[in-house]
Amino acid sequence: PMCAVEQVRYYPLGDNMFPDMLADLKNARNSIYVEYFIIEPGHMWDAIVNELEVKMEQGVDVRVIYDDLGSISSFNFSNVRELKKKGIPCIPFNPFLALKGTANYRDHRKMLIIDNEVAYSGGINLSDRYINLEHPYGHWKDTGFRITGEPVKKFYPYVLDLLERIFAGKRSRTACNAHISQKVSCAAAHI
What we know:
It contains 6 helices and 7 strands, in the order E-H-E-H-E-H-E-E-E-E-H-H-H. The chain has a 7-stranded mixed β-sheet, with helices on both faces. The protein is globular and about 40 Å long. The chain is an alpha/beta fold.
């Protein structure tokens, strides 16, 4: 369904998007949901984690979901433990177990949703190559966008559903339901 957009910003490169992501993270008041196919420690991820840690200390509800196979060579259980030590909940989407037979069920989404008011998405993952600080394959070109307004609320039910499944029984259900009841009238009508 179509709905009005308050603001759309297009980024031809991750280099352009990253500073705005950090600025919006600094302004978060209620919730930050990070869901990415690839997360790789380095300048980009470390800067994001620093902001997430500050926001957790301020009482902001923070959740991180990464694709276990997409991040298999760059993000592992020791990275997850580091986040959990900082109080940041982090869990893989569909943990990769070769015997399980679900290797093809992956989470290719790349979303950063802040306060259910601002969303970033596109092709940019959370790795230094996506902001051209590293060049293992030459200059990296992926696009992204930032939106505000009603379309952000369209992302939220998907995030809520995934959070409820993955973080079942934790505070995400209460926090998410509070946000959803306040802000998702447009999306709720279409689910």
